[in-house]
Write a structure and sequence with these properties.
Distance between the termini: 12 Å
Strand order of the largest sheet: 1-2
Largest sheet: 2 strands, antiparallel
């Protein structure tokens, strides 16, 4: 196991490097960039996604002349040069022998473009030191922004994962016991239908039915707390929070419990057909005692060991849609806004952090599997 963990750890940095390189390269061909966003804001243009035909660097500032910034009429070349320097697309270069403070206002200094290759390796060097920089448009550090939004996403991920386990484990056990019966057939059909419903459609349906739409008005339609939350007692705050989290949690759980249900069923079926179960039945033990006294402990090991991976999957997969529909200010919405605004420090910083977390959680999940079930040997599979 030690050799397997070492191999996985050695692959973390190359994998992370590849993820960052591919995404960084893609941004070189995406129309628009942070400077175009600023120009649009200065000129009062609301449509920041208009067709911008930049140069080869497509919004990164590499090798661009001032004329390549479409819609930059009225913006002085000096201001554009300052923006490029401020956002790391260019540096200030002064004449040899210059002893003053580098400043574009000085005739002896000019802006010098920084190549995309140099910017990428500089960025990766900073990220290795966990220096993610400052957001272009929010004027806050990337780490601070992520920490501010993290509680909302963790709330969704944690409650959704717990709800998925509460539904999937009893349902999976029941399906295993009733394998091949009508119950197993119609529940499988219901699971397939549930899995096929898009998260967005289900979230909107919940709002229409239970959040003041055309039918009932039981749950709030937006936010995690009420406006007067700070004035409530401790118990009142807890109830108010749970009241707000119901619909988002149910909406995001729809797709996550399906896989877990089938995993639980198959795990129980595998254990039920083993020799020790037949021996226990032969000794006269009741079916309930056999199921929950012997089978449950062994069958649930692999299900419980998958908790970290499922939590991470729920945390990152459906958060954008749910946060948008229910007006929750979390990581999903933050990432979407950063991508639309071309806020590259926030985009790449969060991508690096989440990529690293995902890779580490994957290793932890594998270790957990081997701890709870010694029959699993990743080294033999790798060989």
């Amino acid at each position: 196991m030690g050799a397997y963990i070492l191999r996985r750890l050695m692959l973390v940095l190359p994998t992370l490097f590849g993820i960052m390189l591919i995404n960084f390269a893609l941004t070189q061909f995406v129309p628009g960039g942070p400077i175009e966003q600023i120009i649009a804001r200065v000129q009062g243009e609301a449509d920041s996604t208009r067709n911008i035909t930049g140069g080869a660097d497509a919004g990164q500032g590499q090798g661009m002349e001032d004329s390549t910034y479409q819609g930059a009429r009225g913006i002085s070349p000096d201001l554009l040069a300052q923006l490029e320097v401020q956002m790391g697309f260019a540096r200030i270069a002064c004449e040899d022998g210059f002893t003053g403070t580098p400043d574009l206002k000085d005739p002896a200094c000019t802006s010098e473009k920084i190549s995309a290759t140099e910017r990428f390796f500089t960025m990766m060097g900073n990220y290795l030191r966990f220096d993610f920089g400052t957001s272009f448009f929010k004027n806050k550090s990337v780490v601070e922004l992520v920490i501010d939004k993290l509680p909302v996403s963790i709330s969704l991920g944690l409650w959704s994962t717990l709800l998925a386990y509460l539904i999937s484990i009893p349902l999976g056990i029941r399906k295993a016991v009733k394998d091949g019966t009508a119950f197993d057939t119609w529940t499988s059909a219901a699971i397939i239908v549930a899995y096929a419903i898009p998260t967005l459609v289900f979230a909107v349906l919940l709002m229409v039915l239970f959040a003041g739409g055309s039918f009932l008005s039981i749950f709030p339609a937006r936010g995690l707390t009420s406006d007067d939350w700070h004035t409530l007692s401790l118990t009142g705050k807890a109830v108010d929070y749970l009241w707000h989290i119901v619909l988002p949690t149910v909406a995001i759980t729809l797709s996550s419990f399906v896989t877990l249900t089938l995993l639980t069923k198959n795990s129980f079926l595998d254990e039920i057909n083993k020799q020790y179960v037949m021996t226990a039945r032969a000794k006269g033990l009741t079916e309930r005692r056999v199921l929950y006294g012997h089978v449950f402990r062994n069958a649930m090991l692999i299900v419980i060991a998958g908790f970290p991976g499922l939590f991470l999957s729920v945390l990152f997969s459906g958060s954008l849609i749910i946060e948008t529909v229910f007006s929750l200010d979390g990581l999903g919405l933050l990432g979407y806004q950063a991508a639309v605004e071309r806020d590259y420090p926030l985009v790449f910083g969060s991508l690096y952090a989440f990529g690293l977390i995902s890779l580490v959680i994957g290793i932890v999940s594998d270790i957990t599997y081997t701890l709870v079930d010694p029959r699993i040997d990743f080294e033999k599979r790798a060989g």
